[in-house]
Amino acid sequence: MTLMEECRRTVPDTVRKIAEEEGVRPEKLARQVAEGRVVIPTHADRRDEVRPVGIGEGLRVKVNANVGTSPEVCDPDLEVEKARAAVDHGADTVMDLSTGGNPREIRRRIMKAVDVPVGTVPVYEAAVEMTRRGQAVVDMDEDDMLRAIERHMKDGVDFMTVHCAVTLDALEDILRRGRALGIVSRGGAIVAAWMIHHDAENPLYENFDYILELAREHDVTLSLGDAMRPGSVLDANDAAQHRELVVQGELVDRCRKAGVQAMVEGPGHVPLDQIPAVVRLQKRVCDGAPFYVLGPVPTDVAPGYDHIAAAIGGAIAAYHGADFLCYVTPAEHLALPDVKDVILGVIATRIAAHAADTARGMKYARRENEEMAEARWNLDWDRQFELAIDPKKPRHYREERPPQAKELCSMCGEYCAIKILKDALEDRR
């Protein structure tokens, strides 16, 4: 029995634990899981190993961090270190996107190294296997793709991206109308190239019932990939993106009927003014399914600073209803991120999530802001560091540039606004 099916009968302990952490009623949360408006991605064999996390309606906005090797840079130890650093700095989940070395061994190591849900993209591994056989990626058959999915599920991954919603209709929109950047989703490009080469429908879409059987057996959450996500703001909200979204909505319904948890992945590069409409449309078409967005990135011209651009877009998306933000690092579009890049990406995305939760009136966010305001009024620096999203950096600044007076800071010194007002109030007494 899957967690979704359990929630249709009772309130599992996992749900009660998350409800307590989130400050919501367990019965309500169980109902949301049963209806598919919240997912708790935990493999059936890892419920005692993974710290459960709820993603969806009415819950704190969650943050994912991607790690993984590439053919150019393959250091499994580094990827394990990056995964641990991401979790240490507040990532709620980790995805392993390895395409270099031994992907299976790397994901197993990452799963052992962290106590949060771990996701993967099985079609990457299917493509890697073809290349290592000396064959073209498009020469794989549907069994190669399905075997990779089954292997990842048997290995215990908690959630996985499957690019099942890109169909010939959506692909034809791109081929006929063109795009500034075509397809930038790596998994989407692999599947689309296969479809073009074979002049055939997406085998993951056509075999979706079988994928559901596997997901139900292992209780793996499906993350319905957005192969048509725009890679430039010029391509946002075109026909291909919308056609895929309609199919994602269909697949969400099929997942729920099968008792399989599902979330929906979304764009991508989207102009700031279009982000609210993108989120509202997804929520309507996919009947409130949790929305998992990459960024969104609202400008194409910030290489080296895309973690900031994505945080801006992510805050807007989350305020309007996105539930799950996939981080973007400063190395996005440029290189494989290192540990420092991972940390910066996580912190920037957590800031976006917290800003959205503050605007949404989440109790935890208001409490944390109140506590920070009190600590600042009291000039209690240690408490400010404790409350900070990243305690190390503010402490470093203060130690590196110390003030003359211990209770002040080196920016304002004796002209500290709080000190001036406090002194005036004291004199008045």
Fold and architecture overview:
With 429 residues, the protein is of the alpha/beta class. It has 19 helices and 10 strands. Helix 7 packs parallel to helix 11 (208-218), helix 11 crosses helix 12 (239-258) and helix 16 (363-377) packs antiparallel against helix 17. The strands form 2 sheets. Strands 3-4-5-6-7-8-9-10 form an 8-stranded parallel β-barrel, surrounded by 6 helices. Helix 5 (103-113) links the parallel strand 4 and strand 5. Helices cover 52% and strands 9% of the residues. It has helices at residues 3-7, 13-22, 26-35, 76-88, 103-113, 122-132, 142-155, 168-177, 186-198, 203-206, 208-218, 239-258, 275-285, 306-319, 339-359, 363-377, 381-387, 392-400, 417-428; strands spanning 38-39, 55-56, 62-67, 93-96, 118-120, 159-162, 221-224, 262-266, 291-294, 324-326.
Order of helices and strands: HHHEEEHEHEHHEHHHHEHEHEHEHHHHH
Task: Report the structural category.
Answer: alpha/beta
Q: Strand content of the residues, in percent?
A: 5-15%
Number of helices: 19
State the end-to-end distance.
Answer: 68 Å
> What's the helical proportion of residues?
40-55%
Mean pLDDT: 96
- Order of strands across the widest beta sheet? 3-4-5-6-7-8-9-10
Largest sheet: 8 strands, parallel, barrel
- Using only C-alpha atoms, the radius of gyration works out to 23 Å
Which spans have pLDDT < 50 for at least 5 consecutive residues?
none
Label the overall shape.
globular
Number of strands: 10
Defining key terms:
429 residues; 10 strands; alpha/beta; 8-stranded parallel beta barrel; globular; 9% strand; two-stranded antiparallel sheet
